[in-house]
Amino acid sequence: MRTESYISMQDLDTIFSAHGPLADAVTGFRVRQGQLEMARAVADAIETNSVLIAEAGTGTGKTFAYLVPALLSGGKVIISTGTKTLQDQLFDRDIQVVREALKVPVTVALLKGRANYVCHYYLERAQHEGRFPSRDDARYLPLVANFARHSATGDKSDLPAVPENASIWSYVTSTRENCLGSECAHYSKCFVMEARKQALAADVVVVNHHLFFADVVLRDEGVSELLPASNTVILDEAHQLPGTASLFFGTSVSTSQLIELARDARIEAAASAKDYAALPAAAQAFDKAARDLRLAFQEDSGRYPFQALARIREFGPALNAVCGSLDALAAVLESQAERSEGLEKCWQRARALSEQIGRWRDHDDPELVRWVELFSHALHLNATPLSIAGVFQGQISDRARSWIFTSATLSVGGDFSHYCTQMGLAEARAQSWDSPFDFASHALLYVPKGMPAPNTPDYTPAVVAAALPALEASGGRAFMLFTSLRAMRDGHGLLKDAFSRRKLDYPLLLQGEGSRTELLERFRRLGNAVLIGSQSFWEGVDVRGEALSLVVIDKLPFAPPDDPLLAARIERIRRDGRNAFVEFQLPQAVITLKQGAGRLIRDETDRGVLMICDPRLFSKGYGRRILGSLPSMKGTRDIAEVSAFFEGADTAYTRVPAGNE
User: Would the pLDDT of 225 be above 80?
Assistant: First the structure.
């Protein structure tokens, strides 16, 4: 590790100047006052071991603003991002550029969760087993095996020939629960252990939020930590932290975990206990019970509070069957555990899962919300804390180091109180820097007239009808963002029919018809497509240039009031005599809306229209507060002015109190 060094503000002025090292190294580099000011604030937080919340609008250049002082600080730095894609971008591109520009001899390591690395033990087992659910798995397995022989990292993102969501990965990677650890015959060449070794030795470690919080939980449990001690923690895309932290500070058991245990028990039995027929029989019974638990619900997706489960007639008996068959499997695994490390690990997993399900079912903690979440092929039993503020505050006060929280969307009209309350950051310094892009000239906010109430059956058809002339004016080149999967699917069907009637040949792309990466590549390549999406496309999506010139948002993204977590938090706030809508629901919706709106202008030459269909922007008193949180842009309620904008005409726009007005 390098020795501590002082970062002078004069150094930063030079580095971010028009003739500084960044300008020499980065094509098209521009001096941005907000970027320099943010870099100064980050440097000050690092020097004083303090907490900084830094909101930086699109185009500020927040990545370089925190990387420059971090790489010059001389201390150990952990940088956590929202997704593995951003993690790879930081490691492969951004840090390399800054390191070379500044000529600082920092070492950098990339660390992901163990499910991202090929496991030699499970790869070998998969090759011997040879039975898979699909032909694709059998086709991909030799590619993975060849990759494992020649790769230096074992990181599955380095093998694009096998899709990231291919089911073969679950056969050739490990989890914390099924890893054999030092007992594994392949321990000395383990990709996970090598990645952790490099992270311990590096000056800068790049992780993602899931791994960061997994490490926090392990430390709290007294288990050997994943991440090294550090002087500075930088949390990028920090608006995601309340949701991610809630998952990790609570507990969750999925039917996928149960089915994987049944699968592993069957495979280990075939390898090490062929003479004991009771084991595969118990595994098969447990597999069926786990699948039947998901089938207790008819819906494709949904969330249920614990109290509502009594009304699901099949759920109680199905959960009892899971518990009974799990205990039976644990008993037979215990009797055979001495025969192999794999069987021993399966027994330990069975015991742990039994304890987790028992706690979820029987323990009624007023600080935890127990609920069930449904996915198309899985069910999760969740217990989530009502608040993470106290737990996270404990992490920050645990040791003297600097914490940087940064994102484009952390405040509501410059007020950070909602975020600070969620994260327990009452004493943090918070600053905001507006986007340097010229929204006033390059963007237009369109709120159509005559829209029905958002909770009525004819709302989605009205959204599509209002969007059609805007789509014709823009020549496609649009995102249509919906607040629910049902509205997204309905909107897609309506738009498809309308395109056919009007003989519009804009390609129509729908979330779920491919991976997000594939859809975005097609969208950029086509040049006039309309992409219809829900939550996946509200954030973390960067399409620059004319391919995206219109963003349509169907309604204000308030979380559904029957969501178990939201309902419990609202009830807690109301019991305390406070206003849950003002304190929690409205700020949450504003931050989400800012993320969706942020898809439109991604470069200083971009031009486009942001269309928000929700009439509550003008019919409700809180509408002005929402509009005031968006970038300052001209506004209109007239579709003719949208057409004029795309035609490049100079129009006197209708006054809409957008931005800072």
Answer: no
pLDDT tens-place string over residues 118-132 = 999 999 999 987 778
Query: Which H or E run contains 407?
Result: strand 402-407
Q: Residue 503: left if φ>0, alpha if ψ -120 to 50, beta else—which one?
A: left
Side chain identity at 68, as an amino acid letter? V
Q: For residue 94, count other CB atoms closer than 10 A to its CB.
A: 16
- Please provide residue 478's backbone torsions phi and psi, each rounded to the nearest 5 degrees: -140, 150
pLDDT at 659 over 60: no
Q: Is 621 exposed, middle or buried (0-12, 13-18, 19+ CB in 10 A)?
A: exposed
pTM above 0.85? yes
Residue 458 sits at φ, ψ, to 5 deg, of -90, 15
Tokens for 407?
A: 């994102």
Q: List 203's β-bridge partners, or say none.
A: none
Provide Rg for the chain, Cα atoms. 26
**Residue 221, token pair as written in the block:** 């449990």
Query: CB under 8 Å to 581, separation ≥6 — which residues?
Result: none
CA 578, 583, 585, 586 dihedral sign is positive
The strand order across the sheet containing 232-235 reads: 108-110, 204-208, 77-81, 232-235, 402-407, 51-56, 429-433
CB 231 within 8 A of CB 255: no
Q: Report long-range pairs for 293-298 (Cβ below 8 Å, ≥24 apart).
A: 293/255, 293/258, 293/318, 293/319, 293/321, 293/322, 293/379, 294/255, 294/374, 294/377, 294/378, 294/379, 297/374, 297/379
**Average per-residue pLDDT for the chain:** 91
Tell me if 563 sits within 8 A of 557, measured CB to CB: no
Residues 6+ apart with CB under 8 A from 247: 213, 382, 384
**Hey, CA dihedral for 580, 582, 588, 589, is it positive or negative?**
positive
